[in-house]
């Protein structure tokens, strides 16, 4: 995967993953916070989303784990300026 480069990874994403959504996945927080999402077509999944400790607990960020990665890390969108 790492040998594909950015363009190769983007091509694989657009071909195989962009429209993939397992039936047991929900995105209620994403839907309720549309004004906080930079990209409306990149879903923030409820089951793996990062929940902030503040009263406004939403950030478009998910924990990511699994092969080929050894550690869990966070993927997030760039902040929207208000």
From TrEMBL:
InterPro entries (UniProt xref): Oocyte-zygote_transition_reg, Prot-tyrosine_phosphatase-like, PTP_cat
GO molecular function: protein tyrosine phosphatase activity
Signal peptide, first to last residue: none
Domain Tyrosine-protein phosphatase: 33-77
Pfam families with a match to the protein in the record: Y_phosphatase
Top-rank lineage group of the source organism: Eukaryota
Alphabetical list of PANTHER family matching this protein: TYROSINE-PROTEIN PHOSPHATASE-RELATED
Protein name stated in the entry: Tyrosine-protein phosphatase domain-containing protein
Source organism (scientific name): Toxocara canis (Canine roundworm)
């Amino acid at each position: 995967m790492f040998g594909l480069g950015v363009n190769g990874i983007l091509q694989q994403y657009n071909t195989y993953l962009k429209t993939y959504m397992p039936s047991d996945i929900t995105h209620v927080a994403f839907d309720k916070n549309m004004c906080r999402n930079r990209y409306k077509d990149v879903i923030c999944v409820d089951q793996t989303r990062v929940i902030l400790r503040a009263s406004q607990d939403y950030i478009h960020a998910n924990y990511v784990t699994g092969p080929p990665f050894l550690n869990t890390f966070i993927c997030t969108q760039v902040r929207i300026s208000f």
